[in-house]
Specification:
This protein is of the alpha/beta class and 285 residues long. It has a single domain, classed as Rossmann fold. The chain is built from 11 helices and 12 strands. The protein has an 8-stranded mixed sheet, with helices on both faces. Helix 2 packs across helix 5, helix 3 crosses helix 11 and helix 5 packs parallel to helix 6. The longest helix has 17 residues. It binds adenosine-5'-diphosphate. The site of adenosine-5'-diphosphate (ADP) has 18 residues, from helix 3 and helix 9.
């Protein structure tokens, strides 16, 4: 299971041999065992989409759900780093399926596991990306899952398009934004994208929303707040909640420790809890 420099995703060899109907059936068989797929989208990079995806997956697991996390950010996979799985690689099972990496009960698959070194750049055109995403959904031994959380690259390119087209009906999108108007403008495009694909929008999360000074306890709205909520109201999609700026959230994730695992009782831990509850209510339990 290696990809990268020769630009041959693992799907390519198998894909030719498999007839299309059989391929579709194999995909459906796999997806039938996944109750809900949550595709985490953002209009632009750097708004905390991967941070939210990882912490959401971990929080759902802490809630007793069976969870998978699929990282399809082909050009910049950050899930392996956020879970300290940079050295992990995946194995093929006897039946030819791919065994995902498992950590604390969470099943994880990332394009990062297929790259030889983490600085390697992946230069794939759309059809190759679609092929590898299809293989991640069809061939990874996800087993029975309550939730598959998909961390998609920012924007509305080939990867989110492929995953939305492949996963079928039991899916919804969570859109992550920061509060500034410039970021929320991009979210409108993400909502338009979901609507064009008939993908239900579970809701919008406003990340980096306000900061409580640990010294004096005063709340500072560094990027202002409320832009995500306002935009959700204007576009008629649910608002799932705000996650404050929390230096420890950035640090723990950058060090490979999902924040919600360790800091459930903090303001930010509880903000995640509320977001998870809203998602469970809307996506289905
Ligand atoms: P994206 O997936 O949208 O590109 P990331 O999840 O990689 O964004 O986050 C970008 C950076 O911001 C990372 O260093 C991350 O740790 C940090 N970060 C994300 N959310 C927060 C937050 N609420 N508070 C502080 N830092 C955050």
């Amino acid at each position: 299971m290696r990809g990268g420099r020769e630009h041959t995703p693992p799907a390519a060899a198998a894909a030719g041999a498999r007839d299309e109907a059989g391929d579709r059936r194999a995909l459906e068989r796999r997806l039938r065992r996944i109750r809900h797929t949550i595709i985490v989208l953002s209009g632009k990079g750097g708004v905390g989409k991967s941070t939210v995806a990882v912490n959401l997956a971990v929080a759902l697991g802490l809630d007793g759900r069976r969870v998978g996390l699929l990282d399809i950010d082909i050009h910049g996979p950050s899930v392996p780093k956020m879970l300290r799985l940079e050295r992990a690689s995946v194995e093929a099972a006897d039946d030819g399926s791919i065994v995902p990496v498992e950590i604390g009960g969470l099943k994880v698959m990332s394009i990062g596991f297929l790259l030889r070194d983490r600085d390697e750049a992946v230069i794939w055109r759309g059809p190759l990306k679609t092929g590898v995403i299809r293989q991640f959904l069809r061939d990874v031994a996800w087993g029975d899952l309550d939730y598959l959380v998909v961390d998609s690259p920012p924007g509305t390119g080939d990867e989110p398009l492929s995953v939305c087209q492949l996963v079928g009906e039991a899916a919804g999108a969570v859109i992550v934004t920061t509060p500034q108007d410039v970021a929320t403008a991009d979210v409108r495009r993400s909502i338009g994208f979901c609507r064009a694909l008939d993908l239900p929008v579970i809701g919008v999360i406003e990340n980096m929303s306000g900061f409580t000074c640990p010294g004096c306890g005063r709340r500072l709205d560094i990027f202002r707040t409320g832009g995500g909520e306002r935009m959700a109201r204007e576009t008629g999609v649910p608002f799932l909640g705000r996650i404050p700026i929390e230096p420890a959230l950035g640090e723990t994730c950058d060090e490979g420790l999902p924040y919600v695992h360790r800091h459930a009782r903090t303001e930010t831990g509880q903000a995640f809890r509320r977001v998870v509850d809203s998602i469970l209510e809307r996506a289905g339990r």
